[in-house]
Design brief:
The N terminus is likely disordered. By secondary structure, the protein is α/β, with parallel strands linked by helices. The protein is about 45% helix and about 20% strand. The protein has a six-stranded mixed β-sheet, with helices on both faces. The protein contains 15 helices and 15 strands. α2 packs parallel to α3 and α10 packs antiparallel against α11. The relative contact order is 0.05. It is elongated. It starts with 10 loop residues before the first strand and ends in a 6-residue tail after the last helix. The chain folds into four domains: about 150 residues, Response regulator (Rossmann fold); about 100 residues, Beta-Lactamase (2-Layer Sandwich); about 40 residues; about 90 residues, no CATH class.
């Protein structure tokens, strides 16, 4: 047994473990000073502020003065015993959440252990205590206390920053919060699958996420200002710009369905573009935050349903199949495609084009002229002749230069096929 001089007052042993610049404190309560000295010897290497209390009353006084990460509490003490002391500790709001480890050399009976847990103990140690066990248990609770205090400190700093009345300090806190918010916003914007962007109060883009560049093939520098116009379908550009300028002028939220060009294959996909203004305390617009969400599937599905309804009406409106099929071809553009051809096989095995529709009237005229000059080859392994000959559907997701060259009969024909701009067909 290690001996020490008894003390009737609370004593402190300074260590190096700190939270917010102050040592982490552990309260040791035992009416035998030799046991207190033994605890200090066992825990000395942890670098803690070990506070002694030689009775339950001294322990309660110490708890009024400072906060503790842990209480080591002897069960058998004169006056207030350990159970009674623990009960009073738990009744006080300030100390009720401090973990208590009971230490005893008297009773190992289950009833005593259960009593200890019932008054709030988190653990129960029996003397003689193994130093390694004690140090390990104390280290766990000290580490938990440090983390809890750090979280509490961060919360207090945030609350203090929000409640400061001094204008300069409050403005600085808001500036830092805005910078952190901006960083978090941009981190989130890079993580989500939508295209995300921000614009100045005048509407000029000043930032886009990586998804923008991945989809459009344009660099962030190319997208800035009004550079994003290059990614919008020519037919949608004017209405899109007008809607955007109207939102800038009124300060209302912006929403529009637009087609954006893919830098990978040049195809246009429908996107739902939305933007909201960010305002300061005086309701002045600081910037705009916006997104573009791919709704191509939904848009085309809706168009297909509308097309089927209109096509059904067209089919029922006339008994002349050529007129009816021409109407259906017109309906198909641009609901489900940019162009539509209707070909049929005659009784003598030749092919005749019944209808042709294209979103671009100039291309439509070009296609009719090309058909007259370069009629379909009935033996080709691609396109309508192949489908009519085999009775099997054909889907070409990408019309490349090799396919155009195979279909062309000469250089002029190849140039015309390029001008048509066919990207895929079914």
């Amino acid at each position: 047994m290690i001996h020490a001089h008894p003390s009737a007052t609370v004593q402190h042993v300074n260590g190096s473990q700190q939270v917010n610049g102050s040592p982490v404190s552990v309260l040791m309560v035992d009416d035998d000073p030799r046991n207190l000295l033994a605890f200090e010897a066992m825990l000395g290497e942890l670098g803690l502020n070990l506070v002694r209390a030689s009775s339950g009353m001294e322990a309660l006084k110490a708890l009024l003065i400072r906060d503790f990460a842990l209480i080591l509490l002897d069960v058998q003490m004169a006056g207030l015993d350990g159970f009674e002391t623990a009960t009073l500790i738990r009744e006080r709001e300030r100390s009720r959440h401090i973990p208590i480890i009971f230490v005893t050399a008297i009773s190992r009976e289950d009833v005593q252990v259960f009593r200890g847990y019932s008054v709030g103990a988190v653990d129960y140690l029996f003397k003689p205590v193994m130093p390694e066990v004690l140090r390990a248990k104390v280290a766990v609770f000290v580490d938990l206390y440090r983390k809890t205090q750090e979280i509490r400190r961060q919360g207090e700093l945030l609350r203090d920053a929000e409640t400061r009345e001094h204008e300069r300090q409050l403005a600085e806190a808001r500036r830092q919060a805005n910078e952190l918010s901006e960083q978090r916003y941009r981190t989130l914007a890079e993580a989500i699958p939508q295209m995300v962007w921000s614009a100045r109060p005048d509407g000029d883009l000043d930032w886009t996420n990586r998804r923008w560049s991945d989809y459009t093939g344009l660099t962030p520098e190319q997208m800035r200002g009004v550079g994003w116009h290059a990614a919008v379908h020519p037919e949608d550009l004017q209405a899109t710009v007008e809607d955007w300028q109207r939102a800038i002028r009124t300060g209302d939220a912006y929403e529009s369905e637009i087609r954006l060009r893919s830098g990978a294959d040049g195809a246009f996909r429908w996107h739902l573009a939305r933007a909201v203004p960010v305002r300061d305390a005086e309701e002045r617009i600081l910037c705009w935050f916006g997104t573009c969400t791919d709704v191509d599937f939904e848009k085309r599905a809706s168009g297909a349903v509308r097309f089927l309804a209109e096509a059904s009406a067209a089919l029922a409106s006339s008994l002349d199949y050529q007129t009816t099929l021409a109407s259906v071809a017109r309906l198909a553009v641009p609901h489900v495609a940019d162009w539509c051809l209707v070909d049929m096989i005659e009784a003598d095995g030749s092919y005749r084009r019944l209808a042709l529709a294209h979103a671009d009237p100039a291309c439509e005229e070009l296609a009719w002229n090309m058909e007259r000059i370069h009629p379909m080859d009935p033996c080709t392994v691609h396109g309508a002749p192949h489908v009519l000959r085999t009775g099997r559907s054909e889907l070409v997701e990408r019309v490349d230069e090799a396919l155009r060259a195979a279909k062309a009969s000469d250089a002029v024909h190849l140039a015309a096929l390029r001008e048509l701009g066919m990207q895929s067909y079914m």
